[in-house]
Amino acid sequence: MNPNSVPIRRLTTYWKIEAGNAVFIPAIAIYLVLRSGGTISVALVLSCLACSFLLVIGTIVLRMMLRKARGEPDATKTWIPLLLRLRWPALGLCAATAVALGMECFNRGPQLSAQFLAPAVLLLLAVLEYINYYHVQLQHFDHAPDWKRLISGRGFRPSHLAREIERWKRAQRPGA
Fold first, then answer.
1. Which domain holds residue 117?
2. From the first residue on, what is the mean pLDDT of each consecutive set of 10 residues in the chain (176 residues)?
3. Exposed, middle or buried: residue 19 (CB in 10 Å: 0-12, 13-18, 19+)?
């Protein structure tokens, strides 16, 4: 594919944004909690880790898709096994965050404060990122054909990573 093609330019931008978000989003959350008089809690730390972890996975996926768009040989084969191994730690971090946030609510009572909202929003973002990368493509607002497909009533489609994982699994089967 032409190095100046639209998909390559878009993916080149997206992976950089995703990588930056892995640092900036948790940093902003911590800043807002501290600025509002809150403290660094277990729920906040775990939610920052979960969010960053999923955004790093997203960065890897976008880089993998960029390599594939550029026509690089074995662009996906080298990354799919790693991405499959990262799936369970990602879910574990989300579950641990949910437990910590639940315990914080139980002990302190749910309060509409940055102390509670920041970890809750980061956890929600992490879960949505997990779904967006490993299951169905949730993000449709940044690419006109995806948006048209969604509003036409055809619904969500499997994510790029989910399709690549399925191809990789088929290729791993005996006799494939």
1. 6-172
2. 77 94 98 95 97 97 93 87 96 98 86 90 97 84 59 74 92 77
3. middle
